[in-house]
Amino acid sequence: MPKLYLLKPGLPSPLACNWHLSPSRYRLRVRSMRKHCTPTPLSLAANLMAVFFLAAPIISLAAQVPTSIVQPPKQEKKAARSAPKSEETRAPTPETPLLPSSFSGWQSASAPEKVIDPAQADSANAAALKEYGFTDALITDYNRDGETLKVRALRFVDASGAYGAYSFYRQSGWPREQIGTGAASDHNRVLFWVGNVVVDSQFPHISAMSGSELRDLASVIPLPAGNKSLAPPILASLPQKDMDGQSTHYALGSAGYTGPVAANPEGVLPPGLVGFDRGAETATANYKLQSGPATLTIINYPTPQIAEAQEKVIAAYLKAGNSAQHPFTKPLLDSNPTALEVRRSGPLVAVVSGDPIADEAHKLLESVHYEANISALPGQQNNEIQKTARLIVAIITLVVVMFVAAVLLALFLGGGRALYRHLRGKPISSVFDEEFIRIDLSE
Q: Contact 195/162 with Cβ under 8 angstroms?
């Protein structure tokens, strides 16, 4: 039976065909044999890995983009442009008021007084406010049922300045309150801070709802953006064990270091010995050790070289003892002489004082270690930046695990497929298979 082979273009020239009968005597039988280069498990795994590599940076970028800047669909944008602007869709005012006109039934008695001079906000402690980066303040009175609530809101450049001012006004022993980021009270006076704002309120009398009312006030205070909301990193260097959290004090200058004028406190070291003119900042906290109370002072300098030079000066001052040329401060005079010690760790210089025994004072000093990272306030919950970072790390980990799984699957399935074809005497890949069409013409 004669056979006709028709090959596709590009293949060798057609075979010669002999027609012994007329064309009408032949019956056409078409036999199509096609071998495709079908994707093997190895190629599928390779495509899957390529998708992972392309999707990983997109997922990580999507995790970092705030939902507030995600653009709506085009149809929604078009509809929004055609619709009239309502009160909800209008752009917000450029500057949000520092204090609301009313909250929890309290109504502003008159227009609030805005001041930009720290002397007008607090004439006795204007120097300390300036050191903490004071920008402006709002002073107003609220009335409700014939009672008056006096509120003074102080705004600073960043959260570090706000926390410093809060620790400046707050005295040791004030009970802690759950308002804002941190709060304390002294009879009818409640002091709290949130973001870069410190609020000092004076109630006519404290009631069971005073804390809830101030929490409502704290919820509407505008917050700073970016790194201005970060707390001072030096606070993370304070050991947490046996620490009195209500005694921490942060200072950026001599006026803030010595404390409020009305309280008449005094720093552990003379302000001139600390080195604020060299860019130093300090964090102080009290500790309740078994042998007696102790005070830990940590000084952060711009460079380890400055810290090393200042450590020698402080050590010489403590070793010389109280003298007319270099008199001790009152906290040093009240301290156990054997407990006084200084130690440096990187750009940090730590000084321990108080009335513990020498061994416990030394252990407290040894627990201070410098770590070059940014931390939140001691005991504060994780912020949004830390949550986003953990989310990105989790996504990257997931992509890596799936990539490794895809490689192992490709090696198992693709290798088995290649071995099977090799045992059958065929090429290990189907890419070498030829594609043709066979037509049989029989009578």
A: yes
* 3-state secondary structure (DSSP) of residue 116: coil
Residue 441, number of CB atoms within 10 A of its CB: 16
Total number of domains constituting the chain = 3
What is the C-alpha separation between 142 and 155, in angstroms, rounded?
19
In the block, tokens 């001052």 appear at: 317
Give the domain extent around 259.
233-366
Let me know if residue 260 belongs to a domain.
Answer: yes
**Quick check: is 85 in a domain?**
no
Q: What are the residues facing 440 on neighbouring strands?
A: 29
Q: Residue 17: pLDDT band by 50, 70, 90 thresholds?
A: very low
Q: What are the beta bridge partners of residue 102?
A: 107
As a whole number of angstroms, the distance between CA 246 and CA 111 comes to 34
Indicate whether 428 and 312 sit together in one domain. no
- Whether the predicted model's global pTM rises above the 0.70 cut: no
Pair of tokens at residue 144: 């409700």
Residue 341's nearest CA partner among 329, 323, 356 is 356
